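Q: Hi! First time doing this. I have a protein sequence and I read that you can turn it into a structure. Is that right? Here it is:
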Amino acid sequence: MLFSHPGIELKKHLEYVKKIGLEVFNSKSGLNLGVSNIDLEKALEIMLYYHDIGKTTTYFQDYLRSQIDDGVKYTDGSDLKSHALISACIVAYLVSQNTTSKDKELLSAIAFIIIRKHHGDFDCLENMLALNLEYKNLEKQYQALQISEFDFMIPDFKTLRKFIDNLSWFENIKGMEHYFLLNFCFSILVYADKSIAVFNEEFKIENLSLPANLIDLYKSSNFQHDATELNRIRNEIYQKTEESLAQLDNHKILSVNVPTGSGKTLTVLNAAIKLINKEPSLKRIIYALPFTSIIDQTASIIENVFSTSNLNHEDYFLIHHHLSEVKIKLDEKYVEGDRAQLLIENWDKPLILTTFWQFFNSLLTNDNRQLRKFHNIANSIIVLDEVQTISYQYWPLLNSLLKDFVERFNCRIILLTATMPLIFTEEKNEILNLIPKEFRENYFKAFGRYRLSLINGLNDINQNELFRVAVEHIERAPQKQFLFVFNTVKSSRDFYKQIQDYFHNTETIYLSSAVLPLHRRDKIKQIKKSKTAKIVVSTQLIEAGVDIDLDVVYRDFSPLDSIVQTSGRCNRNNSKATGEVYIFSLKKENSSKRDCNYIYAPVALKPTDDLLKEFCSFKENELLTAIDMYCLKIKESMSNDKSTGIVNAVNNLNYPEII
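A: Yes, that's right. Below is the predicted 3D structure, encoded as structure tokens:
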């Protein structure tokens, strides 16, 4: 009997991998991968079933026995026990013989790469197709194959070698189309292979759907008695967004662009769930955020949503980032450790909460482990929350990449922010705002929660000067809650020490990336819970999505979108008189640069400086014009070099240059 892993029969392993892989492929719909769907399915079937055919060699079987039985020694060397390359040669040949379309040479080359690399990471195309070893090892493996129980025919070695030699010169794999096709097929194979290797017959693909009224029930249960003006606006935004789903037409890229604190999370979740129920080809929601520091509060909301409908959130929802708990429910029991990590990284649940890093490193990567979930992004709604945090240098890349991706994989993308970057433009019909322009303007005008002013006319100020300004203000308004946001950890720490030493009897709280995530969560809860006077000192991690509400905000100079996001922590719930936001420009004594210059590029700072000095002081409801002007100036002056380099690497399938 032949084995694939200790105690696992090879033929059964291959049968399970084929079953799961084809189940995955056939669950997808609306794909546009540029090749015959019939031939693609056939090629995948061959890849899935024969990907480990090289394990039938006497060399591999002897090696496997040596791993099980201490009395058996393996002496033939690692080159002969390896199975990926001989499997790749056979699979590529079988694909060429069993596909009929003009794409069979392309599919054979793709099959060769996928099988060759299914235990490793992608390399540049030239290296993945080249045979940089002596053929005598390959011929020895060929002669040692034990394939009598498998129903296929292979040619003599001379014919196979000639076929592979010709394949290694294949030059027609190029462009984003083939990049996505290769990643998709690779993802299905690696997903099925690793899941079956770990769980064997236990592994089953989940098939739950999200109830259409999930968010409606949550809102009616928790907010129906909140009759404030702010809640009226939130409800209107919620309804307008849902109503706009009827006018989608062919738009795949959407946006919800409304002020901070206007209920964006529930609004976009409701829109996504309604869209899934409207379009059955859409299977899951992938909700991505820029920082792990704001994932917990979103997760808490989602868990409460499910509990309101008496549903176990663990059946529908998982969190995936590098700090998330490595534990997941499988059937009626819990799995932990490496087995749990594999299931989490598969992204099989109908609702995934993750980070930008995890999402974009599934699209742009050469990493085997990251690519395993690539196929599960197909037929999904992708929510990019706080999208303004994506650096302007990647805007052209995302424009090119995401427009192509959604068309090929039948996805929708919803960009969510108060300060929409010009990654896509409505004028070119690249994006549809689910809040029509006239309503968007009205919502921004309706929010007058704070007034923004400049300290020292935005001329440089050192830390001791800032401290004196702060002390005077705090002593003048001892009942208020203050937030000071700095650009560097060092400046925030130094200022916090000054504040802590001076205000002995006032609650002081410090936040930055230097604080452990668990402690950050506790401190954010402390800020939200405490209604008495307090002083919070933080870095910019506070600016996006953190649901806290303070009276006065001081912010070190930064790009306008960051300033607006930080300002969203001031009088967030509109429960007080007009809040106060002050912008200062910190420059340490004896320093050649301002703090902001260590963090942000001049292309984002210059238009902000110009706009702030032009307006000097303005209310929140006057910001929309400034935001639009700022984004336009960024787009006009930014360099495309970074994006162009990555797009070229994608088009050339030069994987090491993509990451």
